[in-house]
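Workshop exercise sheet. Pairs work together: one partner reads the sequence aloud, the other fills in the structure field after running the prediction. Swap roles for the next sheet.
Pair: D.N. / O.F.
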Amino acid sequence: MSIRVVVAGDHQLVLEAFAETLNGTDGLDVVGLATSYEAVMPAVERHRPTVLLLGESTMGGKALRAATDVRSAHPWCGVALMVGAATPAVVDRAVAAGALGVVPKNARLPQLVTTLMGVAGGCLTVDPALLRPAVAGETALSVREMDVLRLTAGGASVKEIAGELYLAAGTVRNLTSAAIKKLGGRNRFDAARIASEHGWL
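Structure field:
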């Protein structure tokens, strides 16, 4: 099954050429384009992509806000950010905004494809050297684990969570089990409570 991608940036012609290149790659299907901040959310809602690819320096500097908006409203959609320079500070801001992937604009196509596929699978796909060292007391939960616990806290069943996040029920159970183990919870609801009390949801 192809990974559905919406690409967002400032220039229609550039986006169309970029989309053509990605569509020529096995496993990727560009289903929509957005050329402004205001067009991003409607494009995600209309096309329901697996991944939203955002240009960091585009949309009047609102790319990070767009990433946060999309992740909050549609947690099933992974976000990848293309940046001018992938520095630890840039990566830190992108991950804090909800992006799962960060790739520099000078990257070669195989690196971008790898990033999109990793994000589609719910994995943080960033050069490890650019990640900020963990601080004592910070959550070790992955973004997907937090998504699952956030929905659990709202009373959703495993089947409902799987449907909302476009994951298999078995994947949801695996993510839940991992989160329970990391947090020392008695069950998934207890793990959601612990995560919520720590402000991680």
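Discussion prompt: Strands lie at 3-8, 28-34, 51-55, 78-83, 101-104. What would you look at next?
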